[in-house]
Amino acid sequence: MSEQPEQIPGEESKKEKPRLIRLIRKSNDLVEGKYRFDIWEMRVFTKTLTMIHKDDEDFRPYRIYLKDIISDFGLEQNKQSYKFLKEGAEKLARREIRAIAPTPEGEMELLTHIAAGVKSFTNNSSGKYIEVSFHPEMKPHLLQLQSQFLMYDIKNILRLQSSFSIRIYELLKQYERIGKRKFTIDELKEILDVADKYPLYANFKQRVIIKAQEDLADFTDIQFTFEEEKVGKAVYAIIFYIDRNRDFTEEQHPISVDTVIQLASPVQDTSEAVELFGLVKDFKGANIQTIHDWLKQFSPEHVRQRIMLVKNQIALGSKLRNPMGYLQKIMTQVNLFDPIEEVKLEKKQGDELRLRTQQSITSLEAELEKLQVDHYTTQSEIIDKLLLEDELLRNEVYSYIQNSNFYDRRYTPEQNRKKGMIQGMVFGKVKQNKPALFEEMDKQFENQEKNLKAQLRALGWDR
């Protein structure tokens, strides 16, 4: 069966045909699943998604032609393309995904392969296409989606060369109407499955976050800025601020994504929705669809009260950076509260977190210092005993330190060996002569010290 893209109704130009809108649909649970693709896996997966029709009730084998991949993603047509495409499909067949989904019994974690199978030609020169079959466990996330799903036009990701940029595009696209999304660093790394690839935040920021920021601004319909939240000196979380990309070219796609969504899932504007929209229409990111979404879950009075709270606070001088995002947050809360009090509460919670962090640092520093002192004391006691009981070793050590520029001949060897540099020389010489006595002790100490320092650095300790 050939690919069936959806055509958006509208006036047709006499000179050229209207562009066919090929939509990607994924459940929100799948968008936020834990997995990592390379760019070729992502291209195969994305291309296959465009071949699923919104009314399909079951999966079928999806045939992907090399020429279509090359055309869609603007790739060079060469002998390597089929090879990369085939390898991407084979990786996709082995790829597992973890996704959390709510059920009547509680949240459940799904662990499944994405693809059930892949067919490809054994001879690359004769290969014109590959076939991908999805795993049945993917049905709730890709078929007959009615609510809690993301939909966007594939054109937004065709020019992205990083699979991480595509993932971040989807994660932020979910929250475009809200205009804001927050992740802890650990949470975002877990979703992108990059904790092992980018353990240091500086590398993660530069190669994933900044790269995605540049890519989305250059090639997609949304863009973002971000703010870092710190605990001590360590970055703990990122707040993304999402905006429509006004520089995004719409020459071949004059119908906005919002229009696509409304045409695909039409709703009837009620008088209540129109009235409530009139109250928020001046807020950045406001649209009638958001009002309808709220009215599906809450009474008109519930929605109106929260809108009026925000409008009253703004009238009294409160500076809310993102009123629609704040409305989305308080819409699910049973009891209303003052946003100024919320700011105070957040500050208090931040202060408490910083205090707990500093207390943890102080406690770990004390533990580290005790470990170091105990290790030194234990070694010193062993060395003193060895020098007292082993005359041959004692003579060798004393002869060794007496040839040092740090040795002071006004004092006895016993007095000298308690001083700074000489003491270090004594320790080194004894351990060189009796390595078996110290190897295990030193190894255990180094591991414990390394572990404590890692815990401290994770809290912002910079020594």
Would you kindly provide a brief summary of this structure?
By secondary structure, the chain is of the alpha+beta class.
Overview of the structural elements:
- The protein has 463 residues and is an alpha+beta fold.
- It folds into 4 domains: 1-152, Winged helix-like DNA-binding domain superfamily/Winged helix DNA-binding domain (Arc Repressor Mutant, subunit A, Orthogonal Bundle), CATH 1.10.10; 159-265, Orthogonal Bundle (Arc Repressor Mutant, subunit A); 267-337; 349-458, no CATH class.
- 52% of the residues lie in helices and 15% in strands.
- The protein has helices at residues 28-31, 39-49, 66-73, 79-94, 139-142, 163-173, 185-192, 201-219, 257-264, 271-280, 288-297, 300-315, 323-331, 339-389, 391-402, 413-416, 420-433, 435-458; strands spanning 23-27, 62-65, 96-103, 106-113, 115-120, 129-134, 149-153, 180-184, 222-231, 234-244.
- The strands form 4 sheets. It has a 3-stranded antiparallel sheet.
- β3 and β4 (106-113) form a beta hairpin.
- α10 (271-280) runs parallel beside α12.
- Residues 1-20 and 250-269 have low confidence and may be disordered.
